[in-house]
Amino acid sequence: MRSRARGRRQKGPAPASASTPPPSPPLPVAGPEDRWYDLEEEDEQPPSLPFHPRRTPGAQLDLQVVYKPLDVFQMFFSKQVIRTLCSNTNRYAARRTAEGMKRQWADINADEMYRYLSLVIYLGLVKSSAIRDMWRKDRLHCHPFPATVMPGHRFEAIMAYLHVSDPAADAVNDQLRGQPGFDGLCRLKPLQDQILNACRALYHPHENLAIDERMVATKARIGMKQYMKDKPTKWGYKLFVLADSSNGYTCDFSIYEGKARTPSGQGLSFDAVVNLLNVPYLGKGYKVYVDNFYTSSKLFSHLHSIGYGACGTIRESRLGFPKAEVNAMPKNSPRGEIRWIRDDPLLFVKWRDTRDVTLCSTIHKAFSGNSVQRRVRDKQTRVWSTVQIRVPEPVRAYNKFMGGVDLSDALIKYYSVTQKTRRWYVKLFLHFVDIAVVNSYIIHKEMAITRGEKPLTQKRFRELLCLELADAGRPVSEASAESEASTSARSSEFTGGASSSSRPALEDRPLGCFPVPVCEVSTDGSQKASQGRRKCVHCKQKTIYMCRSCRVPLCIIVDRLCFTEWHDLNSTH
């Protein structure tokens, strides 16, 4: 679209009559590529792109069903994913044991993998300087939950042998190092593909999208590690992330290996954006916001040709940026000064704030009458005051919608499950757990708001997910034996006090709280002290006694009288 300002200047002179001498040749008139315009010359609003998403934006689940946190999380870490993790971990442990590693190992199953993930998420909620401290029993370190899920040495063993890919496939891939067929992400492929498919299938983004880098911190000496001076995490693995600007949902991502795997010749920033925007999956009419690493005339023209709008800050040294000097931003311009050039369909805007800001857009006009507040200090009186300054439309939209990836990063870092490890793929595995948990929470929140309900906070969501994962891996007999006490324990952990709602109603219980055996006494005298033992809900040690009324196992030992202590804590009177 050509600007109306340019159209007025391109009108030719009136035709000359026969009686008048022919006019001198007209002076050249500046076009949009030759000069910058100010606000006295109004820009035109470009035609809006029709928004046609492939699916209805939002969570792709049944709104009539109330999903527990575990139900949503298991859509990312499905049963197939858990089986693959268990199988490859057992194979890797067998290979390491054969190589001489002396750590004790027993094959892990799906139930135990769920309990392991429960503790991984718990360690994001309760930070400790050392993982082993979570199993200590002294006054300084008293965390009862981890010991009820699995022993500390077992957790360390799983962490040491955890493996995502098939070790045999890794060995074949390692032989191709330096050759075209080598895959630098082979050790992550099974889980990465599953997580990406789930991110795309379970949620469809809204109209505004953001693309940016994300850093996963590491100190490993590996070629994949990158440095970004403008990021809070300066050293780490770099991911290119596509996020929904409205809530921070991670829609898609790709891991940067240090070089593009299949370069198109258009540059890394061009390829990163085009590879994340899967048009057949997303649909048409989306608006994409990027920073100056990605923005270029070539990229924005390509996105416009496929029905996508784009907006972002741009470096003036980029190829295709207007080189006009006529009416450019003067050095003494006040705050709020605006200059613009339109070259269909690209709009270039300069704006003076505390410093000059330059943007490019294919979806906005230069100025729509908006303003922002700024605090300024008078040079003479040195008094601060609030003033309104004009703001270009691309700047206002960029500030509103560019933060999708930053919001996603913030949600992850509040309770990140990342831990120190020497194996690079375990670091990224833990980041995938973070992505799955945060995306699950966003889906829960979106569905609750759609139903008109109050959603859980992210901390509460993680707490419930942690407990449900721990219970999902328990045997049926043990789970049923402690079902009466679990609700009370959860309420106590969340609120800091006891809850009477988890105990049976007084009229439904047998009269009196008295100790009874947990099972029928065996005729074999050697089994009387051990038959049917269950974990005490108070101290988590094995006991053969339970409360007749409350139906929970409790110890009755001289130095550990849990029966009395537990009832005192959970008394309804």
Features:
573 residues; alpha+beta; nine-stranded mixed β-sheet; two-stranded antiparallel ribbon; 16% strand; elongated
Summarize the structure in words.
- Helix 11 links the parallel strand 9 and strand 10.
- Helix 2 crosses helix 14 (424-450) and helix 8 runs parallel beside helix 14 (424-450).
- Strands 4, 5, 6, 7, 9, 10, 11, 12 and 13 form a 9-stranded mixed β-sheet that branches. A two-stranded antiparallel ribbon has the order 1-8.
- Helix content is 35%, strand content 16%.
- It starts with a helix and ends with a helix.
- It has helices at 4-9, 69-76, 79-98, 110-125, 144-149, 152-161, 167-174, 189-202, 268-276, 279-282, 297-305, 393-401, 404-414, 424-450, 458-472, 476-481, 483-495, 562-569, and strands at residues 52-53, 58-59, 203-204, 208-217, 225-227, 235-244, 250-255, 283-284, 287-290, 309-313, 338-343, 346-352, 356-361, 371-377, 384-390, 515-517, 534-535, 542-543, 545-547.
- Among the domains are: 205-405, no CATH class; 475-569, no CATH class.
- It is built from 18 helices and 19 strands.
- It is α+β, with helices and mostly antiparallel strands.
